[in-house]
Amino acid sequence: MNIALGTIPFGTTVGTRETFAILDRFLDAGGTMIDTADNYPFWVEGCSGDESEEAIGAWLAARGVRDRVFVSTKVGARPTVPGDLTLDSAEGLSAATVTQGAEGSLRRLRTDYIDVYWSHIEDRSVPLEETLGAFDQLAKAGKVRAVGASNMAAWRLERARNVSAAHGWTPYTYIQLRHTYLRPRPGTRPAEAGHRLVSDDLLDYLAAEPDLTLWAYNTLMFGAYTRPDRSIAAIYDHPGTARRLAVLHEVAGELGATANQVVLAWLMADGIVPIVGVSTMEQLEEAIGAADLKLDADLRARLDDPS
Q1: Whose CA is closest to 183, among 236, 223, 242?
Q2: Are 142 and 170 in contact, with CB atoms under 8 Å apart?
Q3: Exposed (0-12), middle (13-18) or buried (19+): which is 152, by Cβ within 10 Å?
Q4: What is the pTM of this model?
Q5: What would you report as the CA-atom Rg of the chain, rounded to the nearest whole angstrom?
């Protein structure tokens, strides 16, 4: 299953029993990729940012399935000021932070290696050489098997990969950005701090770099495709959105699928790994159903060009 399970609420609004049940079902359905971070969900009052990793670590220890899953976590966006619910005091990407962050994640996840370790946000105050050198040391020590960049501009990703190549270091081979079927209005930014949208330049770059894999987050727009109580973000407020939504729902009706499932299938058809955050078993079952949904060439053409 080419879907990653988003785990922000695990260990908090999704309790231990429910967390274990969701992870069990995901694994049984063929899911292997689990996405977390060292700060989920710090912005919820009373939370430290340890909770998601600790919940996953408890499940890994209880089930003994570490060799069957691909664990992804991140460093750089954990607040350094207690009670700060913004990114204003984010820890950043110094070599010391990257190294210490990995040790903390390994401890909370109860594992001795991380499958892909991400820089969570950009930190342009730290030279790329310092951050990438620290990632490479973790890889050489066997604590990290691959590295990725989250919320990084396309030109910075290219520059970082060139720096790694010049030094013979482990390169970024994963990029994680916000992406969905709807297209944002040019020049707009998400309201959520730290989020960066996929750009056409980034997609063009990915097409030329076969060793790079895109993981997309907020793929289902907080449920806005299917839930009337969830509004579509203002960045998608333009005439093209109505046309894309109309075709999306037409295709979903023809396939007997939900709009969410078609969005996920559309992303996977381009080799993108969609991250799907779930808090209920019903949401998970919907995502699992998308894994077997196939879009033929005609349907993809309609979705790609709904004019």
Answers
A1: 236
A2: no
A3: buried
A4: 0.96
A5: 19
Separation of alpha carbons 75 and 83, rounded Å? 18
Q: What residues act catalytically?
A: 40
Residue spans of beta strands (DSSP E) within 167-300: 172-178, 213-217, 273-277
Residue range 47-87, pLDDT digits in tens: 999 999 999 999 999 999 999 999 999 999 999 988 788 88
Contact in structure between 78 and 49 (CB atoms under 8 Å): yes
Beta-ladder partners of 74: 118
The residue ranges of the chain whose pLDDT is under 50 are: none
- Write out the two tokens for 1: 């299953």
Contacts (Cβ under 8 Å, ≥6 apart) of 44 = 12, 13
Position 233 scores a pLDDT of 95
Distance CA 140, CA 150 (A): 21
Check if the beta carbon of residue 252 is closer than 8 Å to that of residue 225: no
Alpha-carbon gap, residue 105 to 52, rounded angstroms: 10
Contact 176, 149 (CB under 8 A): yes
Reduced to 3 states, what is the DSSP secondary structure of residue 114?
Answer: strand
Structure tokens at 36: 């977390």
E strands present in the chain: 4-6, 33-35, 70-75, 116-119, 147-150, 172-178, 213-217, 273-277
Helix (H, G, I), strand (E, B) or coil at 189: coil
Which residue, chain included where needed, has tokens 């060139």? 162
